[in-house]
Every structure is written in structure tokens, then in C-alpha cells.
Amino acid sequence: MANYLLAALVPILWGSTYSAVSLFLHDLSPFWVAVWRALPAGLLLLLLKPGRPPLAWSKMTLLSVFNIAAFFPLLFIAAYRLPGSVAGTLGATLPLQLMLMQWLVEGKRPQLKMLVLAMLGFAGIVMILNPSADIDPIGAAAALTATALVARASLWLKDWPVTDIFRLTAWQLTLGGLLLIPLAFIVEGAPKPIATHELPGLVWVSLLNSSFAYWAFSRSIKKIGADSMAMISMLNPVAAVTLGIFLVGEVLGSYQWLGIAMVMMSLMLMIYSKQRAQRTLTLKPSL
User: Fold this and answer.
1) Which domain covers residue 123, as residue numbers?
2) What transmembrane ranges does the database entry give (predicted)?
3) Most buried residue, 19, 118, 158, 208, by CB count within 10 Å?
């Protein structure tokens, strides 16, 4: 149970990113916010536990690019262009994208009922992005692409032998932050000075949403599996919607609420189906 509770903190913290951007970081470049989120967090962890990366440099770089250097800018583009509730729901398509990724990459065909639920979730995404909702297409594409990167990286992390999750997190954030610096300079130029009122947001997304959450995310994939961790990501839109409404004052249309409900329903039914299958397997008498 403790492993699942720790895993549940990850999407809740990540769901708060959108509100942190709206409340504290809306005047900063999304690319430089990505740098300030990743690099200080990684360097802090390396100071606490210095040492070589726990994976070969090639694998370490791949994880750093997919989980940090490419993911963070896309995430913040989505956060700047979309209501947090919408961005969080699109991010919660991780189980659907992971299922598709396992089918395409590993040849693991989804069960028919899981495929039906995935189609229900996709229909919900269409409702969220319907033309009358005036959803920014660049922000939506950024959110879905960012989630696809995490899905691919999750499969790598599941398969690659890693024993030191703390150092893995430290190096991912450090390498990812370093790779982001030239990209931020090319796209945005030199960074703006950070104002005092922006510091709480940067501290939140760097220390809690990066240092702690990425350690807990990597640990949870190893402890409870990539599929279960992906299912728990449904808490991301719950946190994003709740914080967006109460802290930022976001207002959604009826079609968007229906779409969010459909995505959440598909994910809840996936979890129920998986838990039921696990109970059946446990209770099945051995021959």
C-alpha cells in the first residue's frame, strides 16, 4: 500500500504544475522555466549523492532527452497555452498511449475490452478538443506528444536494470537541464531576471515536482510496474481540474466536462478490469 500511496503523489504533484505556471510563472519563457525546473533539481540531488550514472551514457542520455529535455518544454508549452484541467486530462492519456506503444514496440496486443476502453478515452479527447471549445491546437499537440515521450521512456525504464533510483533521477535532471540550455538560448535568447514573486513557483516545480516526483516516478515503475503507474496517472487531471478551478478560476464548457468525464471513466474501468484480473489470477488454484 505504501508503494501505491507514494506513486499517487506523483500525478498529484505534476497536476499542480499548470496552476503553478498560471499563478507564478506566466511571464517567463516556457523554455527557461524548463531549464530552471530541471538543472537545479538535478544538481541538488548530485550534491546529496555524487557518483557516476547508474546506466550507460547512451541509455542515460535517451532517458534524459525523453523524460526531461524534450518533455519539459512541451509540458510548459501546454501549460502556457491550455487550461490546466485540459492539459492535465490530455496528460492522463498515458495508459492509452502506453498500451499503443507496447503493441507497436513489443508486439503486446491489448485485450478487446482494453481496446474498447481506449476508444472511449480517445472519444473523450475529441470532446475536449472539439472546435467550439476553442482549444489551442499547439498546446494540445504539445501535451499529447509530451505524454508519448513519457510512455516510451517508461518502457525503457521498466526493461533496463537500475538499482540506484536516486542517482538515476539526479543524472536525468542534470543532463536534461544541460541539454535544455542551448535550446532555450536558440528559441528565446538570454533568460530574463527572475522576480521575487516568481520564486515560489520555481521552487515548487523544481524541488517537489522534479527532485521528489521524478525519484518517486522511477521508483514506482520498478516497484509496481509501468502499467500500474500509468493507471495511477489518472490523478493528474483530478489535481489539475481541482486546482485550476479553485486557485486559478478556470471555467470549462459542457463538452469539455463531458470529455474529461469520458477519459476518467475509461481509465477507472481500466484499473477496475486490471485489478479484477489480478484477483482472479491470485485466487485461481494451481494445478
Assistant:
1) 1-277
2) 29-48, 60-80, 86-105, 112-132, 138-157, 169-187, 199-217, 229-248, 254-272
3) 19
